[in-house]
C-alpha cells in the first residue's frame, strides 16, 4: 500500500530541457504527486527554493549557469532535504562526486518511468519515515498506512473504495473535491454512473469517522459540487 502522506511532499525539479521537465512532471503526477515546481537554471532553482521550500530536489548535473553539484551545495545551505540526480552524465567520477556531496541517489538518462518512481518513493520513505501519517479529524483519526480509522479507542478497517476516496480527499484537504474526481479516484478512468455508489460510500465513511454521522463536521457536502475533508491543523 502506498504512503499517501508522502505524495504531499514538495518536489523541485531542475533541468534545462523543457521536454524532460514535462515528462518527469507527468510521470510524478500520474503517481499522485501534485506539489511540483520546475526550474531551468541554477539561479532560477535557488529563487524557487527560497519561496517553495522543497522537500525533495531532482537535479540535472549540466545546467546553463553552473552544475548540479554546486547547486546542491547552495540549496543545502538553507535546508537539508534529499537530492536525486537525474542526468546524462553517467561516468563513475560524477556518480562518486554526487554521492560524496551527500546525494541520496543518482540516475542516468535515459530512464524507465517506473524506476524513477521507485527511487523517488524510496528516497521519501527513507527520509521521512519518522513522520506520523495519522490524519487528525474532529472526532477521529485516519491511518492511511494501515487503512483504518481510530475512533474512541476502536480501530475500524476501511474498505478499498473508502480508502481511495479518503486518500483523494486528504490530498486536497480543506478544498472541494468534485464528485467526478472522487468517482475517478475510486473507480478509475471511466467513473460515470457511480454517483449513487459514491454517496453510499460517503455515508459509510461518515459512520466511521464522524461523532454524529447525521451532522458531519469532518466530511462536508458542498451542494452541487462535491465534498471537502476538514483536517485538524490544516
Unreliable runs, pLDDT <50, ≥5 residues? none
Q: Tally of extended strands?
A: 14
| Mean residue pLDDT | 90
β content, as a range? 15-25%
Question: Looking at the structure, what is the overall shape?
Answer: elongated
Structural class: alpha/beta
Strand order of the largest sheet: 2-1-3-6-7
Order of helices and strands: EHEHEEEHEHEHEEEEHEHHEE
Number of helices: 8
What's the Cα radius of gyration?
Answer: 20 Å
Distance separating the two termini: 24 Å
Q: Specify the biggest β-sheet.
A: 5 strands, parallel
Helix content: 40-55%
What is the topological layout?
Blueprint: E1 11-14, H1 18-30, E2 36-39, H2 42-52, E3 56-59, E4 62-63, E5 66-67, H3 68-78, E6 83-87, H4 92-100, E7 105-108, H5 113-127, E8 134-136, E9 141-143, E10 148-151, E11 154-157, H6 160-171, E12 177-178, H7 179-187, H8 195-209, E13 219-222, E14 226-229
Parallel strand pairs: 1-2, 1-3, 3-6, 6-7
Antiparallel strand pairs: 4-5, 8-9, 9-10, 10-11, 12-14, 13-14
Amino acid at each position: 500500500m502506498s504512503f499517501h502522506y508522502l505524495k504531499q511532499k514538495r518536489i523541485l525539479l531542475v533541468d534545462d530541457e523543457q521536454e524532460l521537465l514535462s515528462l518527469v512532471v507527468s510521470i510524478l503526477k500520474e503517481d499522485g504527486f501534485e506539489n511540483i515546481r520546475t526550474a531551468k537554471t541554477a539561479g532560477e532553482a535557488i529563487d524557487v527554493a527560497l519561496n517553495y521550500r522543497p522537500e525533495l530536489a531532482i537535479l540535472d548535473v549540466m545546467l546553463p549557469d553552473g552544475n548540479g553539484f554546486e547547486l546542491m551545495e547552495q540549496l543545502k545551505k538553507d535546508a537539508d532535504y534529499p537530492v536525486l540526480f537525474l542526468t546524462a552524465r553517467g561516468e563513475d567520477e560524477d556518480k562518486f562526486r554526487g554521492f560524496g556531496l551527500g546525494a541520496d541517489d543518482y540516475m542516468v538518462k535515459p530512464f524507465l518511468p517506473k524506476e524513477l518512481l521507485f527511487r523517488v518513493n524510496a528516497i521519501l520513505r527513507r527520509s521521512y519515515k519518522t513522520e506520523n501519517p495519522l490524519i487528525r479529524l474532529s472526532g477521529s483519526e485516519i491511518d492511511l498506512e494501515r487503512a483504518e480509522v481510530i475512533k474512541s479507542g476502536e480501530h475500524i478497517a476501511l474498505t478499498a473504495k473508502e480508502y481511495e476516496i479518503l486518500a483523494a480527499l486528504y490530498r486536497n484537504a480543506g478544498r472541494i473535491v468534485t464528485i467526478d474526481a472522487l468517482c475517478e479516484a475510486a473507480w478509475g478512468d471511466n467513473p460515470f454512473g457511480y454517483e449513487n455508489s459514491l454517496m453510499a460510500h460517503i455515508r459509510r465513511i461518515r459512520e466511521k469517522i464522524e461523532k454524529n454521522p447525521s451532522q458531519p463536521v469532518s466530511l462536508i457536502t458542498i451542494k452541487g459540487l462535491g465534498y471537502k475533508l476538514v483536517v485538524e491543523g490544516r
